[in-house]
Each structure stands twice: as C-alpha cells, then as structure tokens.
Amino acid sequence: MVAVLTRIFGVHNLALAEDVVQDAFCRALEVWSFRGVPENPSAWLMATAKNRALDVLRRERTAQTYEPELSRFLQSEWTLAPVVEEMFTENAIKDDQLRMMFSCCHPRLPEETQVMLILHILCGFSLNEVASAFVTSHSAVEKRIPRAKKVLAGSKRLFDTHAPSDFSARLPAVQRALYLLFNEGYHGASAEVAVRAELCQEAMRLATLLLQHPLGTIPTSYALSALMCLNKARLPARLDASGKLNSLFDQDRSLWDQKLVGEGLQLLDLSAKGSKLSEYHLEAAIAAAHATAPSLQATNWQEIVCLYDILITIRPTPIVALNRAIAVGQLGGPESGLTELRAIADPERLAKYPFYHAAFGEFELQGGRPSIARERFCTALELSRNPIERQFFGKRIEACEHGPLTRDTSRIT
Amino acid sequence: MSDFTYLYRGRDTNASPEQMQKRMEKWRAWFKQLGENGHLKDIGHPLEGSGKVVNGKQKTVIDGPFAEAKDVVGGFSLIQARDLEQAVELSKDCPILDVGGSVEVRPIQVINM
Asked: Which among A188, A192, A214 has a CA at the least distance from the CA of A202?
C-alpha cells in the first residue's frame, strides 16, 4: 500500500504515504474492534487507504508537489478520483511494488539497508520486526531506516521500471536483495528460531513480481525463483515437529514439498537460456541435485562438487568454500574433506561461524578421532546463536562420546 | 441492573500492523465476554478523531476537539451492570488500558417516578 501511495504522493513524500497507511490500519482496527472483521479485510483496508489518500490530496492540493507526471491529474477535482482509483487496481499495485522495490535498491545504500527497506516498506515489518529479522538493535535500525528513506526522498521520483536500460542496470541489486532476504529467513542468526518462513515467503512473493515484468523475465530471475522454491521445499524437514534443526543428512525426505520441488525444477528449466551462468543458476542446480536425490547415498556428489567449483569462481566467499569442502568430503571421504577445509582462504572470516567448526568436527568424527571432533563441536556450541543450534551441537557432542549414532550431520542446507 | 456508558479515551498510533491486529483481537474478546455475560447493552461505535465543536450562544463552529490524543474520546459503549462498582470492575479488562488510555465510566441518569 505504501508503494501505491508513494507513487501518488511522490517518493519524497514517503513519510506521508506511510502515515496514510498507518492511519488506515488504525481506523480499520478500531472499527473492526467494534463491528467485527469484514469478509475481505484487505479490500476494506485498500478502500480506506484510498479514501484517506483522496482526503490528503484534496486538503494539500496546492501545498505539496507530487510525482511530476501525475500532478496534472491530481490538481483537478474531475480527474483526481478516477486517477487514484486506477492506481489501486491490482495490476497497478503490482507495478508499484516493483517500482518501490527498485527504488529501495538505490546504489547509494548498502545491500543490507536495501533489504531492511524492502522489509519495512514492502512487507510491512515494524522497525522492531526488522531489527529482530537482522539480529540487530532497535536503535540501529531506527537510525538506518530514516537515513535510507532520506536517500530515497532525495532522488525526487520513483524508479521508472519501464526504462529498459535503468531496469537492467539495477536488476542485479534487486535480485541480490531478494536473495539475501530469503537467506536471512532460511538460515539467519535469529535468537529464538532457526528458520523464519515468513521472510522466505516474502522473498518468494517479490521474486514472482520480477517474473511478471517483461524486463524482469530473464534467465537469472528464473534461476533465483528456482533456487528459492527448491530450498523452501526442504524446509518442512529441516525443522522437525519439536522445532529441532535437522541437517540435510538427517532429514526425512518424505517431508520435502514435492510440489515446490516440481515448480523449482520447472523454473530451473526456464532459466536455462542465454549464455550467462549466474550464481543463482549454480545454487539452484545444487539445490536441485539435493532435492532430486532419493537418498543421501544416492546423491550425485560429483556433480555437486563440480557446481561448487564453478560457483566459487563467481562468488569466492568463505561460506561457498565451506560448503564446497563439505561436498568434497562427501565425495572423497573425511580426509579429503578436512584437507579442503584447511585450504579455505581467509579462515578468520569463518571463525565465528559455528557450522565451520562443526564441519571439522564431522569429518574428524568420521575419520575415527572422536576426541578431536568433540573439541570442535564444543567450539561450535560456544558460538551457537540460538537454543536450536545449541541443542543441535549438544547432540553432536554426545555422539562423539558414545560413538556416532548417525553418521554425518554437517550442514549443507 | 443499571445502565452505564463507557467512554474510551486514548489511541496508540505507533503500533505495527501485527501489534494492532493483536490489539483488535483483544477488543473482540473483551466485547464478546461482556456480551456473553449480559453486560453489553449496545456495543456502541468508534469515533473519528476530530470533527467540529459548536460553541455557546453565538453558535461558533470550530474544528476540534483540539485535545491531546490521549484525552480525545475515541468511542463509546452502553453497559449494563449491577452498580457503579461492578461497572468499574468490568472496565478493568478493557484493552485501551494496555496502551495507556482510559475508560470513563458514567452512570446514565434515571429518575424513577
């Protein structure tokens, strides 16, 4: 809704748009408290916001400057209502969300701030909720978001999603932001929960919007959506009924969402066009290799290692290197896994990451050195970020003491 | 049984949609309970935050009320209770109190003839 209203009021009036939405919510909730919730609450909200927008526009017709191409219509009472009406139709809303998404990915903003803005403006997260999504303090978010909004306001107008060259130039930043949003939900460092499905859900929703835009329908967008579907399909097994984290190796594969796997594979097919091989293609292909393997043993580790080999040339990060080392270990045995782990460039960047130490632990345990493995898991335990991780590493320490019950639980997720 | 009005004052506008939704559910639950126990004569209405105030003999009309948000009446209900004491007791579960608002409990005047 903020996206629609920002289109009407202009990006420099983002705060006004937010006030209108907030006001619409307040009214809705007050009336619903007395009268009960209507059958179609979102339509009701939209209608309320629309009427509030009209009020504001009438009241401040001369005082404000709106989006240049719209001010003409908004200044006349004859065209005001129909124009606003038009903007609240479903297609216009989708368009506006896309426009807002691109505006949020302003090149002057750091990637993390872009994602925060998307969460706040497009997904309706309060500052508190954004802070907890990013495991940062409320006051930090309280500083960053207003500052970021100023940057947006400074650009005077919303991003024009119909200008092909601008669109293509900013598309990678938008894709990256959605990728980060998804990952934050999938294995973010939240204090209470290991997986926040609602972040994944929002990322997938916005990625679908990209695919509905003629300029966004390109192979990398398909690959991004494929990657999200294929990973999300495994979520039901990743956390079991008691909220316990299960690594890929322990997951009950019958819980994987086969419908989503199917969708993901279809999207992956659609992404296989053109000459550009992106990191999303590779990650989606890796996810597909896992999702289609009937069992851990029957997984095509050779292929997965190959994919990681290419991925690491495109995105040479320690996390990619870590996952690659784990895959190499699965293919060539624990000793080769350990060799790869030790060969990771700048390991200090992984020093605080519990699953880095856990990966060492797994291979040491498989290699028949439970006491060294135990030490590694103890380090991981000390670094764990939520009770679910703590419980997970606790179990691994027990395994070192009593001999391995399940053979492997390192984390390729 | 006597009749009372509850005048709700105060409004919290800084809540996230999710928080607001929780608050609404509390209101629904509270009203439901009042109704089930036969205390809700008329659920009443929420009121717009401002309107006009007509004043004195001159009948001057001004925008208003210009009071602090916490002092503006945001809604009313008609309540049935044994006595003022019970009406006050029932009002203590009102969700408006959670956001620092208030409930004014006023007996409706009756003269038995």
From this structure: A188
Interface check for B7 against chain A (CB to CB < 8 A): the answer is: no
DSSP code at position A239: B
- CB under 8 Å to A200, separation ≥6 — which residues? A182, A185, A186, A228, A231, A232, A235
Average pLDDT over chain B reads 87
A237 with A252: CB under 8 angstroms?
yes
Burial class from Cβ neighbours inside 10 Å (0-12, 13-18, 19+) for residue A232 reads buried
pTM, full prediction: 0.66
Complete DSSP assignment for A315-341: S--HHHHHHHHHHHHHHH-HHHHHHHH
Upstream peptide bond of B65 is cis (omega within 30 degrees of 0): yes
Q: Show Cβ contacts of residue A150 under 8 Å, excluding neighbours closer than 6 positions.
A: none
CA distance, residue B80 to nearest chain A CA (Å)? 17
Q: Is A22 on the interface with B (CB under 8 A)?
A: yes
- Cα–Cα distance measured from residue B91 to residue B79, given in angstroms and rounded to the nearest whole number: 10
B11 shares contact with chain A (CB less than 8 Å): yes
Radius of gyration in angstroms for the set of CA atoms belonging to chain A, rounded to a whole number? 24
Average pLDDT over residues A127-148: 78
ipTM (interface predicted TM) = 0.78
